Amino acid sequence: MHARVVATLAALALATAALVSPTSDARAGEVGKPRVIAHRGASAYAPENTLASIDKAAKLGFTWVENDVQRTKDGELVVIHDDSLQRTTNVEDVFPGRAPWKVKDFTGAEIARLDAGGWFSPAYAGTRVPTLKEYMRRVEHNHESLLLEIKNPQLYPGIEQQTLKLLGNEGWLDRRHLGRLVVQSFSADSVRTVHELKPALTTAFLGAPSEAQLPQYARFCDLVNPSYGSLSAGYVAAVHTVDGPHGRPLRVFAWTVNDAATARKVAGYGVDGIITNKPDVVRAALGSG
Ligand code: G3P
Ligand code: CA
Description:
Layout: H1 3-19, E1 35-38, H2 51-59, E2 64-71, E3 77-79, H3 91-94, H4 108-112, H5 132-141, E4 145-150, H6 159-169, H7 175-178, E5 181-185, H8 188-197, E6 202-206, H9 214-217, E7 223-225, H10 233-240, E8 253-254, H11 260-268, E9 273-276, H12 279-286
Parallel strand pairs: 1-2, 1-9, 2-4, 4-5, 5-6, 6-7, 8-9
Antiparallel strand pairs: 2-3
Residues 66, 68, 149 line the site of calcium ion.
């Protein structure tokens, strides 16, 4: 074929790709190899849920990162996994009399004083617990996409609405950004609330509802994200037979897979995404990223 014809066809293919629905990236993983999602950032290599961990994911060449969102005593949304500050910060040293050091019992200003990196490695000493606002700005800066988990929503009434408000204020609820965002929770009620507040958003339930329950979940979530240990090829196939709230088959992102053999096994079940602390290991195992 003439070189100019080839170039024209290639340009047409690119243009077609650019014209697909703005939700296409959030739907990625539907065909071919599973999407690889850096769990709490590239958390095997940098302190989890910090800006350093999503910078590390970007540096390794990964687009999708996962995080956990909770709320401070004075109503600030922050990115941290546990409901206590104890494991991932130096809170015991800074506030020795405040056990059990719950996130919800500390103000944003107090949490901003904590070191969220020294526990992981001296190289990361001084790293902070990011606010969600800071985090979203870094995700944007890095051109990343986000699997945002609303963590422990039962502790934070109204956190769904508050999270969506912040996302909207930061420009993350427009058509272009919706393709780069999935909101998930272990709480079905929380996922349902998010779906009802912003039906265009892609949502995921963390867990493995029975096959009989899937149609109920499909009213408000686009993905079912189970622990990999609870998966089988039959279950993944069953999930794929049910259409979600946007009229497309439900998808499955499995967590948390940190070794090559498990990555290959879970990919063989037909999952659409793999959530991992070691995205480079999963990519090397599957030849995808
Ligand atoms: O994204 C899946 C995974 O994050 C759920 O478990 O405890 O790491 O938040 P956890
Ligand atoms: Ca999580």
